[in-house]
Amino acid sequence: MRRRLSGLTIGTALSVCLAAMPVLAQTNTAETTQVIVKATARPHLSEEVAPPPISDFIVPPRIEQIALSPDGSHFAFITRKAGLRLLTVYNVDDGSNQVIRLSEDPLSTLTFLDNDYIALSDTRTASRSTCPSGLDKTFKAAQSVDDYRSALTDGGFGSGTTNNSGASEDWLIATMISTALTPPPCRSYGVRAHEAAAIVDLRTKQSLSLGARMGGDYDQMPLGLPKPVMMDGKLTLVGPFLELRDKSIAGQVAQRVYLWKVDPQTGRGRIIDDKGGDLDREGSYVDDWLTDGKGQPQVRAQYTYISETFAIETRQEGKWTPLLTRKIDAKAHTVAPFLVGRGRDGQSLLLLDAATGSDGKRFHYVELSLDGKVSEPLNEDASRDRPVFHPQTGALAGFAHDGEVTTYTFFDADLADYYSHAVDTAPGQAVRVAAIANDPAKMILFAQGGDDPGSWSYYDFIKGRRVDIGSQYPDVPQDWVASQRTVRYPAADGLTISALVTLPRQGEVKKRALVVLPHDGPLSHVGRGYDWLAQVLASRGYVVMQPNYRGSDGYGAALQDAGKGQWAGKSLSDLADGVKYLAAQGLIDPKRVCIAGEGYGGYAALRGAQAQNPYRCAASINGIIDPDDYLKTARSNAPVDAIASLKADPAAPRAFVADTLSPGQIETQFGQTPPPVIGAADISKPVLLIASPNDAVVPSRQSRALRDALQRAGKTVTFVELPDNGHELKTQASRLSAAQALIDFLAKHNPAK
């Protein structure tokens, strides 16, 4: 029964002393509620007031991950205090909380199984294939007390062969036996998620590795987080698990996947026989299932490696019946559809599939009906859209579209109504639904925008209750948080480009010095929210522009496709067109502009150091200088790129997002040939090069080689090395070093005053 929410008044807020990760966000609505929001206009700060230290702006977000229990009575988040990583669980009903110390293991997802158990997991992308998985032996469960002990290697199938030399048996029989024991060819036909997972018992504050003690001869790796169901009155986890072994046995594939049911208290489990031959694995094997609310298999995906045929089957009248079959052509990199969940009617299946057209391979969500018919695509591009399922029925309710802010398309009117009222809790701000209970009236929301760096709240819309979980950046000086605004301007060819502009808090914003910050990618985007580097620059008096140039995602297929082959072309001129636009508005002085960026943004910055560009100086942070070398590195990191343009999305089960480091994606952005290498002869402006020796994405040798060439040519170059840092600036130490180097460089070559 639908519950109307109009006329809602939110009650008195409660406060929580501790407080992650925004998962979803904003739908458009014209409706309003009776929520009253009081706001105070902030005057500009006096220019005589000294800005806070740079270190005040580079603090990490307060909350890493956040989750809501299925019944909505508890929420949990991961935060830090006094240098410790803590899991805090809060009881909404009585206000009590408990705190559990966590290790520093990688963590991408926090999930309630019920009020007694929480799952912590680290999501990795893996290939669906007949090949040995090659999992790293150190790939272990996040926060777990037990390591995974995998027997896997990075090699191929076992090198042992049957020695028939001098054998007394008939050679024909020996040959037949040898053939029967020969493993099938190594074939890849899709992608999926591996989870290194741990289960935390909130009653005992103890954890166990999921897959390490399930039973049998091998450890197991969950393929996606298992589904919590009630079996015989007890919470049980049900899902596919990969058997951790590295070679074929008796002619079967090395990757053996089984459906397991697991006790979250003990970690012990048993294989579920789906009554369809999946235990035999003779010539074919099942590698995925969808189960009902009782954990019983209803749909499965099967690959027949003898005929290289993939099928999706449903259980009808006690038998498995194929609904869709597809020949897997290894040379054409044919994709096997991925089972995502139930379609809009709750009966059909939602699949992630690929279609190849004149513009290349594009991924879509489609529905497969029980009579075997495949629908037209439900969305424009699955690599940018995330399915939203109704928490009660499990049916597809809509899609979340990531961009500058996250917007929604809903098929379910009830859920659309709840999300509309979520947005209305903070008029004028970008509101994201970070978590939702089985009762969709209970949500955790994250609101940010304008001058607010972001805050978390729990809502029960039926009871009219709100719990303030707190600010995401409570230690940032609030008076110095610079305002972020959106501008849209025409590129030289008429294409509309959107950019975020951060305005300094001191003095009048007129004829100011500008720093252009192109984002990494290009297949990425700048979203609304707190940006530490933009805030540092604004605190020092600079206007900051962050354009979502052509090739950026999150603004529709047209803008993204416009970037194909424009890596060193119009994607760069889009940045200069933004400078012209801001100059025409009187906001900036076109003679006082510098450009800085990371990764591809660093390439754009160094190309901006050429004589004909409107920049006085350029700064590259782990920037790409030799595109061909960058592509070779990407290929070495992803030797099999059949459909690796997708990677598992930890924020949404059974969903995938675009992989910006896919060699195929990079080649599309390059065009016919790799863009030119940046050499000393190309540079005519002062340059800052910041590089990380441990950068696995862009080798730091590129920056060092350019530094040496610029020094030999007698040109102005500053070089800073960030030890113990990777490609992204994730640590406070690396951010402080990079920000200080950039501020010092700008003060010399493009002062704010």
Automatic annotation (TrEMBL):
Keywords: Hydrolase, Plasmid, Signal
InterPro entries in UniProt: AB_hydrolase_fold, Peptidase_S9_cat
Domain Peptidase S9 prolyl oligopeptidase catalytic span(s) in chain numbering: 530-749
Signal peptide location: 1-25
Pfam families on file: Peptidase_S9
Aminoacyl-tRNA synthetase found in the keyword field: no
Gene3D superfamilies listed in its UniProt record: alpha/beta hydrolase (3.40.50.1820)
Domain of life: Bacteria
GO molecular function: serine-type endopeptidase activity
Single GO biological process annotation from the record: proteolysis
Name used for this protein in its record: Peptidase S9 prolyl oligopeptidase catalytic domain-containing protein
Organism: Asticcacaulis excentricus (strain ATCC 15261 / DSM 4724 / KCTC 12464 / NCIMB 9791 / VKM B-1370 / CB 48)
